[in-house]
């Protein structure tokens, strides 16, 4: 029987997800990336587009485990709420620091971001779990998904006109540019893939994880839990594909169809890990992913910080001065590999580099919690 404490499968699934984040965020050359390691240009979904929602889904599962005891003791809710807000704001601050570093240009800093969204989603999903029961949670999820679909598909856009889903003229883009002008993603300028309005359906992604976490904590036979988890994973995936016919699957907009599609696949992925690791006991090959999973935020933050530091270190070459990352990449990868393979090899090197560090931390029981 599986214990209702910490799930090794959840840590492993989180580790796989963070490892994938580092893989897709650290190519040697952004112009030479294999298609599965790219985001979809707009509508559609690649394997890379599943990484972020998988992480938010895992955040939700973790909430159901971490706050279960506090939920049963209303007298502790105020202290728990303070911890929730503190942790969420810490995540937001870490993301903002990455946006600022190394120039600290406050007047143009990108305010939205991956860690920022994780922080906001964590706060909202955790409060909803703590203060509501399952029926109300499901109602909130339905209202957010249907409400987001209605406003995105039918609400007119001020100064533009009819509702649309085009990159720069949709309602979410208008809201981003209205409230955060000059503080959006540098590649888009007028909208942000981690923008304000699309954070609401992202909360539902985490709440799907909350529902799964509550289900896995039930005192029931593991086989029964796995069976229903797989069934609902297939149902959500199919519903997402059906909704895609009217409200396209789109990561940048975090559309309702995308929430169901990615959430369903996350259920299937976690269900498979749970069956193999926690039920069948296959653990020998899971340690490389486990070490990523137990220090997920730490490695994600540092893997974003170190390349920025490398960009500050300059090296003189016969062709002129280059940053240390470019120097190492050209010296050790592009000289003997094709452009695409060199770019991939650099990313894989980063994965191995962090795996060694995280393994040492794991063996020494060093777990940095945010």
UniProtKB/TrEMBL annotation:
Matching Pfam families: HGSNAT_cat
Keywords: Membrane, Transmembrane, Transmembrane helix
Transmembrane segments: 12-30, 50-68, 88-105, 111-130, 137-157, 195-214, 226-246, 258-277, 289-310, 343-362
Superkingdom: Bacteria
Domain Heparan-alpha-glucosaminide N-acetyltransferase catalytic, first and last residues per copy: 6-219
PANTHER family reported in the protein's UniProt record: LD22376P (PTHR31061)
Protein's UniProt name: N-acetylglucosamine related transporter, NagX
């Amino acid at each position: 029987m599986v214990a209702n404490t910490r799930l090794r499968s959840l840590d492993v699934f989180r580790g796989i997800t963070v490892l994938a984040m580092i893989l897709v965020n650290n190519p040697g050359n952004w112009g030479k990336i294999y298609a599965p390691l790219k985001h979809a240009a707009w509508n559609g979904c690649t394997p890379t587009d599943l990484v972020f929602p998988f992480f938010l889904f895992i955040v939700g599962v973790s909430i159901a485990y971490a706050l279960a005891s506090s939920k049963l003791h209303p007298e502790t809710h105020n202290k728990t709420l303070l911890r929730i807000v503190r942790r969420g704001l810490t995540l937001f601050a870490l993301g903002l620091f990455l946006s600022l570093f190394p120039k600290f240009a406050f007047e143009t800093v990108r305010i939205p971001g991956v860690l920022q969204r994780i922080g906001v989603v964590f706060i909202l999903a955790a409060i909803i779990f703590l203060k509501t029961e399952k029926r109300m949670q499901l109602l909130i999820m339905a209202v957010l998904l249907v409400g987001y679909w209605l406003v995105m598909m039918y609400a007119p856009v001020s100064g533009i006109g009819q509702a649309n889903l085009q990159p720069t003229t949709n309602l979410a883009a208008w809201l981003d540019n209205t409230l955060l002008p000059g503080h959006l993603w540098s590649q888009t300028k007028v909208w942000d893939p981690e923008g304000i309005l699309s954070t609401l359906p992202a909360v539902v992604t985490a709440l799907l994880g909350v529902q799964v976490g509550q289900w896995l904590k039930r005192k029931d036979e593991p086989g029964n839990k796995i069976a229903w988890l797989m069934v609902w994973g297939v149902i959500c995936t199919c519903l997402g594909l059906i909704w895609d016919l009217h409200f396209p699957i789109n990561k940048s907009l975090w559309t309702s169809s995308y929430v169901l599609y990615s959430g369903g696949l996350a259920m299937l992925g976690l269900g498979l890990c749970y069956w193999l690791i926690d039920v069948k006991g296959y653990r020998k090959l899971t340690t490389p992913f486990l070490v990523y999973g137990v220090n997920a935020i730490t490695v994600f933050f540092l893997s974003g910080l170190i390349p920025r530091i490398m960009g500050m270190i300059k090296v003189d070459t016969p062709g002129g001065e280059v940053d240390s990352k470019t120097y190492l990449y050209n010296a050790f990868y592009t000289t003997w590999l094709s452009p695409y393979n060199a770019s991939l090899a650099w990313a894989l090197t980063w994965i191995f580099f962090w795996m060694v560090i995280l393994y040492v931390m794991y063996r020494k029981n060093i777990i940095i919690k945010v």
